[in-house]
Design a protein that fits this description.
This protein is mainly alpha-helical and 356 residues long. It folds into 2 domains: 272 residues, Fic-like fold; 61 residues, Arc Repressor Mutant, subunit A. It has a 3-stranded antiparallel β-sheet with strand order 1-3-2. The longest helix is centred in the C-terminal third of the chain and has 29 residues.
Length: 356
């Protein structure tokens, strides 16, 4: 809890303030974005959840094939091993996060429940429990309180965070970053503290205005920038034991990610509004005609994330019957071959005759 205890000491530089301005301009569009995307909100969130599960598994190197991953996420198949059970647990966790985010309040019990829900029967039972601290533990707070259990340290840290958030003493993401670094150093559990810490960081951002992560995968951003992320976490932890940690590198990283994610969301909203004015079947056909010779249904889903599978299947059957495409193989891994080439539009350019 040394970061939150010493939060008054850090001065925020101008570049952080400018990033606040940018990100809060985007946060101000949260309700407008929700209104525009409302008809397909559940579909979009489902896609985000799928990406978050997938990239969380990649970040922490959960060994599972793409085929089994898809089966576990999209179908109610029975897990065959602990890694597959963990993917099923993650699926349920991310769904619960999005279902309950509007009423979420961070509590120590919530963090413990998250740990036990994810990792019970995955890791030894003892490792899901709060750590006991030795008398010589460095986790003695600046309030001169000596703790014997990591739960007590976490309880104090959670209360301090909630008090600051309620009083609006500091900008929310700045408080959240300080809490995250504290969490990593408290190491409340015997195992899986980095995994739980990242999930708590994600939940806190999502529940404090950063609603962009309903539509754009937070875990994908962390995975694609994982080397930078690990570096800024390390930099933000320097001199932690002396109570002199500087969390600004991580704070800059997260603000940059939020601004980039909101830019992605702006493109998504733009394309969504454009697609609403088009016939969905014709739009899919147009995409197929622009593909290379061979393509898959997954290629179409990536291009049209808001179109239902039934619409995609109906368009594929029609084009097959018309002789425009034909299937290659059978089952979920089947691909399609385009048999007709897109017609090139002929443009006639004429010089303007301007007589003034």
């Amino acid at each position: 809890m040394k970061c939150l205890n010493n939060i008054k000491r850090t001065q925020l530089p101008n570049d952080i303030v400018m990033n606040y301005i940018k990100v809060y301009q985007s946060i101000g569009t949260n309700q407008e974005n929700h209104n525009i995307l409302n008809d397909d909100y559940e579909t979009i969130v489902m896609q985000t959840i799928k990406n978050d599960i997938y990239y969380f598994a990649k970040i922490f190197q959960i060994d599972i094939s793409n085929r089994r991953f898809k089966s576990l996420v999209f179908k109610d198949v029975k897990p065959k091993n602990k890694n597959e059970q963990l993917i099923k647990n993650l699926k349920n966790v991310f769904h619960k996060i999005h279902d309950d985010i509007s009423t979420f309040q961070l509590l120590t019990n919530e963090i413990q429940d998250l740990m036990q829900f994810l990792y019970t029967d995955i890791i030894p039972k003892k490792n899901c429990q709060f750590r006991k601290l030795k008398n010589e533990s460095p986790l003695t707070s600046l309030l001169h309180e000596t703790f014997t259990n990591a739960r007590d340290v976490l309880e104090k840290t959670v209360k301090l965070l909630n008090d600051h958030l309620e009083n609006e003493s500091y900008e929310a993401s700045y408080l959240i970053v300080n809490f995250y670094i504290d969490f990593l150093h408290i190491k409340p559990f015997y195992d899986k503290n980095e995994e739980i810490g990242l999930l708590v960081l994600y939940i806190l951002l999502l529940s404090n205005g950063y609603e962009v992560y309903e539509y754009v995968s937070f875990m994908k951003y962390i995975y694609t920038q994982r080397d930078v992320f690990n570096q800024v976490v390390l930099q933000s932890s320097f001199n932690y034991s002396e109570g002199l940690a500087q969390v600004l590198p991580l704070h800059r990283f997260l603000l940059k990610g939020a601004n980039e994610s909101y830019q992605t969301l702006r493109y998504l909203v733009r394309d969504y509004e454009f697609d609403k004015h088009l016939n969905k079947t014709n739009n899919i056909e147009n995409t197929i005609l622009k593909f290379e010779d061979v393509f898959s249904k997954e290629d179409l889903r990536q291009k049209h994330p808001f179109v239902s599978d039934s619409t995609i299947n109906r368009t594929l059957r029609r084009l097959r019957d018309e002789g425009a495409i034909r299937p290659i193989g059978k089952g979920r891994s089947a691909k399609w071959m385009r048999l007709t080439k897109p017609k090139k539009k002929q443009f006639k350019f004429e010089q303007l005759d301007l007589k003034i």
